[in-house]
Amino acid sequence: MSLGFIDLRVVESSAFIAAPLAGLTLAQFGADVIRVDMIGGGIDYGRLPLMPSGRSLYWTGLNKGKRSLAVDLRKPEGREIVRALVTAGGENGGVLLTNIATSWLAHESLAAKRAGVISCSIQGNADGTTAVDYTVNCATGYPLVTGGGTMEKPVNHVLPAWDIACAYQAAFAILAAVDRRRRTGTGAELRLALSDVAFTTLSHLGVLAEAELLGEDRPSIGNHIYGAFGRDFGTADGRRVMVAGISSGQWSSLVRGCGLEREIAALETSMQRDFSNEAERYEAREAIAALLEPWFAARPFDEVQRLFDDNRVCWGIYRSVTDLLANDSRVSAANPVFHSMQTAGVGTHLAAGNAVRATGAPSGVTGPAPLLGQHTDEVLGEVLGLDSGAIGRLHDQGIVAGPERDPTSGALQRSI
Amino acid sequence: MSLGFIDLRVVESSAFIAAPLAGLTLAQFGADVIRVDMIGGGIDYGRLPLMPSGRSLYWTGLNKGKRSLAVDLRKPEGREIVRALVTAGGENGGVLLTNIATSWLAHESLAAKRAGVISCSIQGNADGTTAVDYTVNCATGYPLVTGGGTMEKPVNHVLPAWDIACAYQAAFAILAAVDRRRRTGTGAELRLALSDVAFTTLSHLGVLAEAELLGEDRPSIGNHIYGAFGRDFGTADGRRVMVAGISSGQWSSLVRGCGLEREIAALETSMQRDFSNEAERYEAREAIAALLEPWFAARPFDEVQRLFDDNRVCWGIYRSVTDLLANDSRVSAANPVFHSMQTAGVGTHLAAGNAVRATGAPSGVTGPAPLLGQHTDEVLGEVLGLDSGAIGRLHDQGIVAGPERDPTSGALQRSI
Questions:
Q1: Catalytic positions of B, please?
Q2: What does the pLDDT read at residue A156?
Q3: What does the pLDDT read at residue B139?
Q4: What CA–CA distance (Å, rounded) separates B288 from B312?
């Protein structure tokens, strides 16, 4: 079950985050995503964190809702099976999603087998050289302005933000190419480099033009929000909250929520500033924060929460993930975007469906991540039309495998 | 000019990052995106950084390649124009993208005017309460593990990563709904909450299951890459590089690039670890880093670069944005993803086209951000079929406006 918007079969030959997350996105909207992996698993199959069974929570998180075909990708016959899957008939097939550049999946050779094929290759750099999120992020300037970072002590992000942005752009590009193919019959060879994703974002956010035209790098201002007012504050009982006064509505809510109208007005007068202008709030951020700090420090969290909610302040509390799970109903089965899932070798756990809510459509429940090779026979039969004899011979020759060859299958036999 | 994949007209009523970036994405693939704004500009029109003309580099970055209609959104007649644009005829119209919840753009009322309308509303929280990137991020756990962050000193990201992820998901959802509408004729009411975007991502990355099933929060390990080996190092001449040894191929390249095969093997022996296993590299990260640190500190950057490129190491250099622009050809007109753009009130600057490269398709040059109201007359004529008399009356009544009412038009008259 998925959102059921897309009628498409996608073959995914991938590893790590960007391509698998693109595949997950397509699957959560209804695509039949067939992930092909080396028998025994690819290079991302054992990535931390691991369950005692050996199953990776990283891999099972990113590969929910897909079918799995396990195949020996070193053998010519194995490669031919993947090529056949990508180029199989049906107007809704013929789509490859990959981040594994390999000549036997080159677009031209697929297009020669099937007109109108769509391939989307995610790369590190566009020239084919390697790059990962962290080796791209270091060049974006962000580590020098995050958390008070400097060139001597840059601060890397932990969230793989460029991988995530790349994933959704890749999924979007595939759908755009499918949309064009429906109208014109034309296929597409799409390439998306992680470094291009990051650097184009710098342009879209105005950061690149700022450097070019104003000669300015964004200042390293810790947790202050750039260009307006916002920062984190500690409460009397050791909690920490983030407040945002980006729009003037948010700003006046914050001042009202704190009951500091008079003090803020006095500060405006003494500084000769107009805080209804966001740029002037930004320039006065230290003085404003100095006024707010003792207000928070004098109040327990419960009181802050009540005053802020009553006044519709834009704010949030800092949480660890365990705290989030335990105490925030937005991350619970009470939120229809989440549901309980049973994953082999993992157990029963809360998992995310599609973040997009569509009124009147199924709520977007996503199936669990497959075992490696769980759908090998089904896919070979359905998509390639192989009969059980032919499938059996491929198993006997070690060209394909079923879930029994999953390296965590010992633990799995106990848990499924 | 755009990539030309999508044949669609989208009306965007938006502010800040997520919705405008979704609109930009649609525009860069070929959609005709009509941004409607209050005469004089919405709440994001003056956001920093600003040019001396008063034009915002933030706004012009996010609104490239769109058409602009300036309209008095407080007047019933102004609202009716926007509703008419959203629901205008043609099978490729009938799409609204917004993050401004307002009853006069409610889905049901649009659907009553035009069957098959697709609306996508971006929200803070799904219950309609306000949230921005920073007030969602604080609850994700990331500020407690970024840059050595703690609850007492959390580290906010500066890159608005959730807004960006939300933008691309919204653009994807619209296209998926359009794909379904082409097949079935059905419209869609889509809602996407920023907090759902963030928290579902925690599930996709395995972070949520880790907390639930293993009771573990990701550790706060500074610039170390979780789950494998990778960190930043300083060179003899004061440059700083990031290296990644996530896959075993990347790891052996790194060891070979540094010429530390013997030392690393000795460390494995003494620690009784097998560094070909990524989890064991991760556990030994401090000891490995201690071996690498003096190697970097003894060498100038040029030597590191040569050795690393010769050995295909996965690495990158830390740069400020001004440094990036001056010294990295990936961010220059030599990269077809970028091109020179002339934006009124801004001047000539480097700007990003579409990050996705499509072989044989136009290279994805994006037009500049419009002036507010630059396309008012054109859109009213083309989409609503109004004649010049009717358009003139709307101007006279102050219901719509052209670019002369752009608040930066004084500076613009000098620059265009």
A1: 163
A2: 98
A3: 98
A4: 20
Contacts of B164 in chain A (CB under 8 A): 161, 164-165, 201
Other beta carbons less than 10 A from residue B404's beta carbon? 13
Is residue B98 within a helix (H) or strand (E), and if so which, with residue range? strand B95-98
For A170, A175, A189, B117, the CA distances from A180, given in Å and listed in that order, are 15, 9, 13, 20
Q: In this predicted structure, what is the pLDDT of residue B101?
A: 87
Please give the model's pTM, rounded to 2 decimal places. Answer: 0.98
CA distance B124 to chain A (A): 10
C-beta atoms of A212 and B141 within 8 A: no
User: B313 to chain A: nearest residue by CA?
Assistant: A130
Closest CA of chain A from B359, distance in Å:
5
Question: Per the CB < 8 Å rule, is B60 touching A209?
Answer: yes
Which one is catalytic: A32, A163, A377, A406? A163
Nearest to A155 among B147, B183, B199 (CB): B147
pLDDT-derived band at A4, boundaries 50, 70, 90: confident
Burial of A73 (0-12, 13-18, 19+ CB in 10 A): buried
Q: How far is A400 from chain B (nearest CA, A)?
A: 24
Q: Which of A151, A173, A320 has its CB closest to that of B318?
A: A151
Residue numbers in A near B215 (CB within 8 A): 322
Between chains, do B226 and A158 touch, taking CB under 8 Å as contact?
A: yes
The tokens of A396 are what? Answer: 């006997």
Coil/strand/helix, residue B407: coil
Contacting residues of B for A206, CB less than 8 Å apart: 49, 56-62
Using a 10 angstrom Cβ sphere, with 0-12 exposed, 13-18 middle and 19 or more buried, the burial of residue A40 is middle
Q: What is the CA radius of gyration of chain B?
A: 26
The residues with which B38 forms a beta bridge, in sequence order, are B71
- Within 10 angstroms of residue A343's Cβ, the number of other Cβ atoms is 25
Q: What is the mean pLDDT of residues B235-259?
A: 98
Minimum Cα–Cα distance from B253: chain A residue: A130
The whole-chain average pLDDT of chain A stands at: 96
**Residues B349-382 pLDDT 10s:** 999 999 999 998 776 689 999 999 999 999 999 9
B49 upstream amide cis, omega within 30 of 0: yes
Kindly indicate the confidence band of residue A411, based on its pLDDT and cuts at 50, 70 and 90.
Answer: low
Q: What contacts B356, CB < 8 A, 6 or more positions away?
A: A169, A170, A173, A190, A191, A192, B3, B29, B364
User: Residue A120: which of A97, A87, A151 has the closest Cα?
Assistant: A97
Q: Which of A6, A282, A330 sits opposite B125 (nearest CB)?
A: A330
pLDDT, one tens digit per residue, over B7-46 is: 999 999 999 999 999 999 999 999 999 999 999 999 999 9
Cβ atoms of residues B122 and B22 within 8 Å? yes
Of A131, A319, A349, the CB nearest to B209: A349
B69 forms beta bridges with B36
3-state secondary structure of A300: coil
DSSP state of A404: G
Interface test with B, best of A3, A9, A203, A305 (most B CBs within 10 A): A203
- Predicted local confidence at residue A374, as pLDDT: 98
Question: pLDDT by residue (tens digit) across A294-321?
Answer: 999 999 999 999 999 999 999 999 999 9
List pLDDT tens digits, range B211-236: 999 999 999 999 999 999 999 999 99
Q: Are B263 and B270 in contact (CB under 8 A)?
A: no
Contacts (Cβ under 8 Å, ≥6 apart) of B11? B34, B36, B82, B85, B86, B95, B96, B97
d(CA A271, nearest CA chain B) in Å: 20
